[in-house]
Amino acid sequence: MSLADVRIVDSADVSPEAKIGAGSSIWHLAQVREGAQIGENCIVGRGAYVGTGVIMGDNCKVQNYALVYEPAKLADGVFIGPAVVLTNDTYPRAINADGSLKSAHDWEPVGVTIERGASIGARATCVAPVTVGAWATVAAGAVVVKDVPAYALVVGVPARRIGWVGEAGVPLTAGEREGSWVCPVSGARYVETNGTLTKEIV
Questions:
Q1: Nearest Cα residue to 85 out of 38, 121, 61, 57
Q2: What residues does 164 pair with on adjacent strands?
Q3: Over the stretch 142-189, which tens digit does the pLDDT of each residue have?
Q4: pTM (2 decimals)?
């Protein structure tokens, strides 16, 4: 990586051991830890945190004050809204049972996986270990405690599926036959089978 290929503002705290792809921007007061890998053309917003060893694909957006804790993995084109939290501790405690302060060796971090094109709305929380499927949308304020299928639209606490969204991010409308869905923006067609949605190949 050439520093000429990325934009890192003076107030950002970016480890020299992080890898930042060409065309990416790291904004004010953001922190990117050692071993993090950020792809090309990504944006890390003001005050956001990207933890040690987090892997982020190309064309991702991590909005202001989002917290992406290791070992999260974000595929290409993932959107992380403002103040989102991706957790990494299934049973969090500050101290051990004997009262001693927990150290990095006293617990095993677990990560959140977000697949291609998925969006996590503002102030949503994903409780690791969960996977958010490709092109899914997690509504603002939702708390995700189980895996989200590809193309699912989930809302609430705990998050539950209330519909499907297409790759354009717009809720799908029912097609003319049972189990068929259509994107009102692109016209793309999808088929639902046993709680799974797949895009029709034209």
A1: 121
A2: 152
A3: 999 999 999 999 999 999 999 999 999 999 999 888 999 999 999 999
A4: 0.94
